[in-house]
Specification:
The structure holds two protein chains of two kinds. Chain A is mainly alpha-helical. Chain A has eight helices and no strands. The termini of chain A are far apart. By secondary structure, chain B is α+β, with helices and mostly antiparallel strands. In chain B, strand 8 and strand 9 form a beta hairpin. The longest helix of chain B is centred in the N-terminal third of the chain and has 21 residues. The radius of gyration of chain B is 28 Å and the shape is extended. The chains are: A mainly alpha, B alpha+beta. At the A-B interface, helix 2, helix 3, helix 5, helix 6 and helix 8 of A face helix 1, helix 2, helix 3, helix 4 and helix 5 of B. Chain B: This is Ferric-dicitrate binding protein FerR (Iron transport regulator).
Chain lengths: 194, 356
């Protein structure tokens, strides 16, 4: 993929002291980081502060920072640890797992997405019921896997758990989803013939 | 455009890069692609719809910045980075390092302070002597009256101060934190501001919060100091152990024996003890006449509220005002009934055109 080559080049230039290269990394990943940070249910200003701290630290430690195969993964992992630190210091959350925002999109543009409205709403509500029973960390694993496209190994490193746990999280989450997928068509079948 | 893939499961589709890009960016050319895809594989429509639903759930609430906003944030971050690319020593003095030293100094000072000989009659002012020196920047309010009084703090938080108690606070809001020194008893309703923690210091304990309501009692002559939480979560540390916080949540309370600084209990709150105390009162309303609410607030906060009875006759309010400071309660009610308010000479004046 073209952008990963560029990431790699930018990362190298930044480590050699090119501030503009770091700026381009910021611009490229700001949305990704902010979206991920906001999932931890802390306010916007705090997330933005954490992102700023993260880049400040990256700059100050650039001589100690290694090459990375995925800049995105590196940044997500670093942001998570900044946020955990913020929660510990500011909110005294010492033993708790961070929260995970499970709010739905505000509006769903069914026409653009090529789906029928009633089908979509039904599917989403049923799936939501299943997913809402999952703990925060399993929701997070699901997000990193299917939204950010990280590998199981990368997710394990980001969330600071072993690979097996990540596989288990995903397995559990997908079982929930699948049980839904098996029932849904049956529901429509029944509806059609009643 | 890559050739049509033919996924057999929802997860396969969810993992498909083209699908992910379509869902994230929703480009027009991708829409054509998926429209055609659905025509080629009509039997996969179900699968497609399930994958879309699953993706939307996983993606969650969208909150996207525009390109301009991202550019602005990038500039801000770059501006915060010092221009010292030639300086190679700097990285060794990274932020973490500085922070740890700062933390160590704070802990060191706190520990050092703890071992200082304490005079028998240590008062709040002597404990914070150097703070008292800048008295010009501080406001001190004492309640010498016969009933509790409300004190409005600069950050819009409020304290209901019991008889014989006093509070001291900065006239101007500090950029880092909000601090109040209390002698006696106060019921605090703290305006939410996660960026600026709110501290209440007394001779025997410190309470830290970010936005909540709670009562603190620490009279000099009394042997027990008390913190009681009405809503939210607070961290209480005794002066004896400044780095061992105890966390309290709704309806919990903590007492400290002031002589020994020993934490003696952390029990559930018994509302029946004193139902009229503001810490036990509920401010939840359903189509309640606004004049009645003002009556309750007037009594709870001991602050007169002045309004035109006739004009407010048909105004009602529904909602809960438990977790917000006094002025915020007033503001929220005014917002609902389209009125305005001002605080003049220790009373609140409501300006309203009435409700229809």
């Amino acid at each position: 993929m073209a952008s990963s080559v560029q990431d790699h080049v930018l990362w190298k230039s930044y480590r050699e002291g090119d501030k503009q290269a770091l700026g381009m990394i910021v611009e490229r990943y700001y949305r990704t980081l902010r979206r991920y940070g906001l999932k931890f249910m802390i306010d916007e200003a705090a997330v933005e502060d954490c992102i700023q701290d993260l880049f400040l630290q990256l700059w100050q430690n650039r001589l100690q920072i290694n090459d990375t195969c995925s800049v995105k993964h590196y940044l997500l992992k670093s942001l998570r640890s900044h946020i955990i630190q913020f929660l510990r210091i500011e909110k005294h959350f010492t033993h708790q797992e961070p929260d995970w925002d499970t709010a739905l999109p505000k509006e769903i543009d069914v026409e653009t997405l090529l789906i029928q409205e009633e089908v979509a709403l039904f599917q989403i509500n049923e799936l939501k019921r299943q997913l809402d029973t999952l703990p925060a960390r399993e929701r997070e694993a699901l997000y990193l896997k299917y939204y950010e496209n990280l590998s199981v190994a990368e997710i394990a490193e980001t969330m600071n758990v072993n690979r097996q746990s990540v596989s288990n999280f995903l397995q559990k989450a997908l079982t929930k989803l699948r049980s839904r997928w098996l029932v849904a068509p049956l529901y429509w079948f029944i509806c059609l013939f009643l | 455009m890559k050739p049509f893939s033919n996924p057999h499961s929802v997860t396969e589709l969810l993992e498909d890069e083209a699908f992910q890009r379509w869902m994230k960016e929703r480009r027009r050319e991708d829409r054509w692609f998926w429209e055609e895809w659905l025509q080629v594989y009509p039997e996969k429509r179900d699968l497609y719809e399930q994958a879309v639903a699953a993706f939307l759930l996983i993606e969650g609430k969208e909150d996207n910045l525009t390109d301009d906003e991202v550019a602005l944030k990038t500039d801000q971050i770059l501006a915060s980075i010092p221009d010292d690319s030639a300086n190679n020593i700097k990285p060794l003095l990274g932020w973490t390092w500085v922070r740890w030293v700062a933390a160590a100094i704070v802990i060191g000072l706190a520990t050092w302070y703890q071992f200082l000989p304490k005079p028998q009659d240590a008062t709040l002012t002597s404990r914070n002597e150097e703070k008292a020196l800048e008295e010009g920047k501080w406001t001190r309010v004492s309640n010498t009256g016969q009933q509790p009084m409300v004190v409005l703090l600069p950050d819009n938080s409020s304290v209901v101060l019991s008889q014989g108690s006093s509070v001291r606070f900065r006239k101007e809001i500090s950029k880092i934190k909000r601090e109040v020194f209390l002698q006696g008893e106060g019921f605090f309703e703290v305006a939410k501001d996660a960026q600026k923690p709110f501290f209440v210091y007394t001779n025997s304990l410190t309470t830290k919060v970010l936005g909540t309501s709670f009562q603190v009692r620490s009279f000099e002559g009394e042997t027990v100091a008390l913190v009681k939480v009405k809503s939210g979560k607070v961290a209480v540390t005794s002066v004896a152990a400044p780095n061992k916080p105890t966390f309290l949540t709704e309806h919990q309370q903590l007492s400290i024996v002031t002589k020994t600084n020993e934490v003696i209990q952390k029990t559930s709150d018994n509302v029946a003890e004193n139902p009229t105390a503001i810490v036990n009162q509920q401010f939840t309303y359903e189509f309640a006449p606004v004049s009645e609410i003002f009556g309750q607030l007037q009594e709870a906060y001991h602050l007169p509220i002045q309004y035109d009875h006739e004009k407010l006759q048909s105004c009602t309010f529904t909602g809960q005002l438990n977790d917000v400071p006094f002025l915020e309660k007033i503001r929220l009610i005014c917002l609902t009934i389209e009125a305005t308010y001002e605080v003049v000479d220790d009373k609140v004046i409501i300006h309203s055109q009435g409700c229809n």
